[in-house]
Amino acid sequence: MSRFKLRHDDAGYHLVDQFTPGNPLRVDFSDGTFSHRLKGAGLRSELVARAVKPEAGLMVLDCTGGLGRDAFILAHLGCIVTILERSPVVHTLLADGIDRASTDASLASTAARLNVEFGDAKQRLQGLDYFDVIYLDPMFPVRRKAALVKGEMQYLQNLLGSDPDVDELLTAALASKAKRVVLKRPAHSDWQSPRKPNHEVSAKTSRFEVFVP
Q1: Across residues 173-181, what is the average pLDDT?
Q2: How far is CA 129 from CA 16, 43, 81, in A?
């Protein structure tokens, strides 16, 4: 029996983890918790904004779509964001979430600045010359002493595992013609970046390494 089931109901697509009790995973940008974050999102209040420096019309390529939260924040702040996702299941959830947001009057203008595509970012990055910022938020291996993630991120970790090709992805991003590459990573992890970032924006649980190729 497959552990994960992608299902569809009147509200759209959702993912069920049959080994873990709890709510199914659904990408919903109108969710109460995220709506609260979105209302308070600003250039200084959001770490991702301080790292990316969003402005109207800034072209951003998010190479690791995930649940699309950071991408939605950047689009809300004026960026035009293309999301790449190589998991067909997560891509379906993301596309469904953006489609539903486009029918919500309070979210439609932001959703219009978002586009999600299926594919491997390492291949897509070759020869790209029209994105201002490359954004990376890969799944890093969980440290043994780290607290276990819960909820939506637990779904993703159980479904996808970690991304073993972080070095290759970052190298490909740095080889692009983007003006800025932003890597989100845990505040404490054993992974070593192949290149020292130009600067960092950090918080208690995560930090953003900023590279200027």
Answers
A1: 93
A2: 39, 26, 15
